[in-house]
UniProtKB/TrEMBL annotation:
Protein name, per record: Cytochrome c oxidase subunit 2
One of the record's GO molecular function terms: copper ion binding
Gene for this chain: COX2
Transmembrane segment boundaries: 27-51, 63-85
Domain Cytochrome oxidase subunit II transmembrane region profile residue range list: 1-91
């Protein structure tokens, strides 16, 4: 997660985010070089070093300031398009999770399992334990296996939402009546925080996202525990109905 006085991006936790950070540094260096060149030309013109009242036009200069920007745009566009297509690639996901936005919480459904799903609410400030983060912690985290392709289907039930986790390089809008998809691979274990990135009402800032990446064996244990809990709840409901 971000820390106080941070100037750069969060540490990358997925291959796509690493590519985005590299592209950011690449584009920032080009912008820095352009700014330096323009500043030098302005200073030189003010000091009359580049001023000549006898030159009214120059074919060579016009060729340079036409070709050079085109080359710069190509240097920016090629890696940008590569990353854009890389982010759209979803090949053979190991796990599919459906994230549905509500006012103002998220619900998750693990579609590869029969009855594995839950709602994720923000933990109020008064209920936080030492070490937890205000406005970012949830009562149930979205747990995923690390180093596995994960597909996330994003939708919404009421208004527009946006499922975004910066350190994973993921941001996808949730639109009522539509099903958008994105994918990521958590390259290391950890807890990654995000928030709804689309203004969705009065409590827009109170619907955080927490993704926890764990080894595969730990994910299997976690999923088996949740399935057992769901089965026990169904049995209790059936017993209550029979008793009534």
């Amino acid at each position: 997660m971000a820390h106080p006085s941070q100037l750069g991006f969060q540490d990358a936790a997925s291959p796509v985010m690493e590519e985005l950070l590299h592209f950011h540094d690449h584009a920032l260096m080009i912008v820095f070089l352009i700014s330096t060149l323009v500043l030098y030309i302005i200073i030189a013109m003010v000091s009359t070093k580049l001023t000549n009242k006898y030159i009214l036009d120059s074919q060579e200069i016009e060729i340079v300031w036409t070709v050079l920007p085109a080359v710069i745009l190509v240097l920016i566009a090629l890696p940008s398009l590569r990353i854009l297509y890389l982010m759209d690639e979803i090949n053979d996901p190991h796990l599919t999770i459906k994230a549905i936005g509500h006012q103002w919480y998220w619900s998750y459904e693990y579609t590869d399992y029969e009855d594995l799903g839950f709602d994720s609410y923000m933990i109020p400030t008064r209920d936080l334990t030492p070490g937890q983060f205000r406005l970012l912690e949830t009562d149930f985290r979205m747990v995923v296996p690390m180093e596995s392709p994960i597909r996330v289907l994003v939708s919404a039930e009421d208004v527009l939402h946006s499922w975004a986790v910066p350190s994973l390089g993921v941001k996808m809008d949730g639109v009522p009546g539509r099903l958008n998809q994105t994918a990521f691979i958590a390259s290391r274990p950890g807890v990654f925080y995000g928030q709804c990135s689309e203004i969705c009402g009065a409590n827009h800032s109170f619907m955080p996202i927490v993704v926890e990446a764990v080894p595969l064996k730990d994910f299997e244990f976690w999923s088996s525990v949740l399935l057992e809990m769901a089965t026990m709840e169904e049995v209790e409901m059936m017993m209550d109905e029979d008793f009534c």
